[in-house]
Request: fold
Amino acid sequence: MHNLMQDWPLRVGAILDHAARYHAKRPIISRSAEGPIIRTTWADIHLAARKCTQALRRLGVKPGDVVGVMAWNTARHLEVWYGVPGAGAALHTLNPRLFADQMAYVIDHAGDSVLMVDADLLPLIEALMPRLLKVRQVIVLTDRANMPDTALDVLCYEDLVAAEDGDTDWEPGDERDACGICYTSGTTGNPKGVVYTHRSNVIHALASQSPDMLGLGAADTVMPVVPLFHANGWSIGYTAPLAGASVVMPGRDMTPPALYEMLEQGVTLTAAVPTVWLGLLGWLRDNPEKRFSTLKRVVIGGSSCPRAVIETFQDTYGVQVLHAWGMTEMSPLGTVCSFKPEVTALPHEKRLDVQETVGHPPFTVELKITDDDGTRLPENGEEQGKLWTRGPAVVGEYLHAGKSATDAEGWFDTGDVATIDANGYVRITDRSKDVIKSGGEWISSIDLENAAVSHPEVAEAAAIGVAHPKWDERPVLVVVPRPGASPDKQSILDTVARKFAKWQVPDDVIFVEELPHTATGKISKLTLRDRLAEMNYTLPG
Amino acid sequence: MHNLMQDWPLRVGAILDHAARYHAKRPIISRSAEGPIIRTTWADIHLAARKCTQALRRLGVKPGDVVGVMAWNTARHLEVWYGVPGAGAALHTLNPRLFADQMAYVIDHAGDSVLMVDADLLPLIEALMPRLLKVRQVIVLTDRANMPDTALDVLCYEDLVAAEDGDTDWEPGDERDACGICYTSGTTGNPKGVVYTHRSNVIHALASQSPDMLGLGAADTVMPVVPLFHANGWSIGYTAPLAGASVVMPGRDMTPPALYEMLEQGVTLTAAVPTVWLGLLGWLRDNPEKRFSTLKRVVIGGSSCPRAVIETFQDTYGVQVLHAWGMTEMSPLGTVCSFKPEVTALPHEKRLDVQETVGHPPFTVELKITDDDGTRLPENGEEQGKLWTRGPAVVGEYLHAGKSATDAEGWFDTGDVATIDANGYVRITDRSKDVIKSGGEWISSIDLENAAVSHPEVAEAAAIGVAHPKWDERPVLVVVPRPGASPDKQSILDTVARKFAKWQVPDDVIFVEELPHTATGKISKLTLRDRLAEMNYTLPG
Reply:
């Protein structure tokens, strides 16, 4: 009586097949690598992806190989997104902002044998090539007319695919085969490789497009501003064709006017980190005649979204904010802050309070919080603890780690510290390595930072714990003032004090010109702590 | 590099866990088996289901066993829906309207060792019990106060679960383990058992709740009028908790005033076969002061939905109709007629034309049409052919069949004849065994019937092919007049002729008082053809 339904493996190729058959003419609008905005369709992407599969096979790419791809968000990147796994290889997305050593490390560690690179990013590979001993072929993602001058022995992507007819099948295989690889850009140690399977990507996309998650349908046009090389591209490369949505690809130009131009191509849903939206909203403030004519919802994740961004999108522009949380290890979706009926029923300000949480998980994402000893904590919105997760799209083992990434019961430690309330809304209060422990209590560095940046003269802020003989640690704020501003220490502390108990208010404010960031744009507290140690910083008083 | 994500089996128990944790207090409103309307929550259902699991284990139910359940749509049925697979057993839903011989056959064939039965349905089991040699225990789904008098040795469900504390885990297991069994009530031969796996039910529920399918979210309240024992209960027992939706259970009273009363409990989405809605809309016509205060969408499937029903729901009541198609073998969802942008752009009447199709499939459902030789036909909305399907929630092998239910490439023959248009909208034109073949062309019996019932004096109509020496077959209409009406043959044929080519118009109309139906309410053309043969019917002229 076992296993009497069909054996239909969950493979990502089937997603694109579905889009090409049932949403064939839905527009794919892309700012191309070469510059112009071009329009294609899911049917076009499907054909092009199969040509890509054929071309890779002709180059000797075999199932189980790894192909590195370093590219901006373009329609061509979408072709490759399916063309590489179509050949049975794993697509290793490369973040061009990685430091050279990290880049060389991940290309070698994943075993990339072929690299596919946007023309403007080729210099990064040229510089590294002597160290990339496993790479046997570099393909430049452009046409013959736009091929860059290079000393490397490279192939032209459009020449390769022009030689193919697209008349092929995706490589068949097990649903647990590797489909994609994305490295975490850890702030300590070497990056770690997360190997998405066909199965994990398909299940994750099904869960992500749910009405209360991204809520993607065929009437939507989605623009991923988040790069496809960030955390599995937030899975939009899978959810969009699965839902039959249109896609707008912004290309490499992330300036506010360029993003606005692309949003006005009919986009209804978009997704990016808060800094992108801070930039866009600032530009819109200076261009008050600009409105969004089609945009309805914006997904904001990657780091905590300031309340002011949520309010401006919603109140000024009528665009619903979906605050979200996830991580590379989760494919990446963990939670989305959509409104359950309990929240819809709240008054405006209370709803905004809820929107400062990152929301609730979809089915297939299990969450729990524990204390340092692993004892489960109550989910009452008050107790904060280490956040753990479990699910079919959560990492089980890092690439070549040779050991499980989870505990014996299958739980993965997210490294975040959070509260979870009775309705399941998660508030990320800290990274566990950044939490400030004072007098036996935890103080949220994120909450302190959010309070500090609500000060009108503060551009960016980092809260870190500094050793204290009596209290273990005391919080200190490191602040970048807004251009031209010279904020007063006490006024910043007063601003913070409005939202915190007295013992939680930082002991000091240090002004700096800029904060150190990681390759994915997060504040590197590790570097910051090192800098304070180098300058022999001591607490006042 | 294989299988590095977590091994998290897709089991239905996880769906209820999710609902109980993240949608704990969402109301479950049920007309109980005992009569009163009761309110519980997903948290309550979760606790009760675990008690049910414990009680079944105490009775000796083991993984791999089969438990038969014959019950109306109540909250208690939902408990059992999870309690039985929670113990690792397969839940075999029993249709109380099956003929006695079929009922005895399916209970024995599936190997039901325990039966759980609503009190009012116990007489059906009492009558069969001497033939049910494998059944070792009967549980009556009620409390002590409502236990019926019976000579059978039965247990009281509420007594059993009251003895448990709910502190248990679902039986762990493989995702391809049997989870549920539903027999097709074939019009020929013995019913065939479809064995849903945990995996197929989970994947199917994820696909079904997509925005363009049921589009279920936490803000919805769904009422399945379709019985849970019909075609996997249209999967609503899984999609509702997965989406965190509220549920209203109508109980056994299917009269229009009773259904209306339950719809007014906040229902936003409901689902049933067309006859249910014909009855309700008729009652509403006679009670013009009644409106729907919350209902937004109605899923109509099981047989072709008349255009008038679609128009009345939408134009008179502002309720969107989602015409759907599926089958027991597909878990059951095949297609839903939601609007893609191409359809939204159409004028009103053209959109209604599209709504007479059953819509398009979700990702995970593959479809194709072929001619009798298996050659794939173009999907242009014109060519009709045998409809085949493939997917992870499609039957692979019927229970105890010992052979595949599919062809060598994994395609399952739905038994339907259909056209598929360029946008993927499927029009079911016939059952392949009912299609009328005249002069080498196929005539759709369903289209003829729909045309006939658009005649104001026709209550129900069946079109069948009658042997003809020259044309192979010629169509004949068998018609049930509306009460009190005496329609004229020619006026019915004239009505049909407006929509059909001359050679497609039936050669005759036969008036009868009623048509033979199967246990699931479909017209039994097999019986009808037998009757015509018995009366030595011959074509006129």
About this structure: Chain B is about 30% helix and 25% strand.
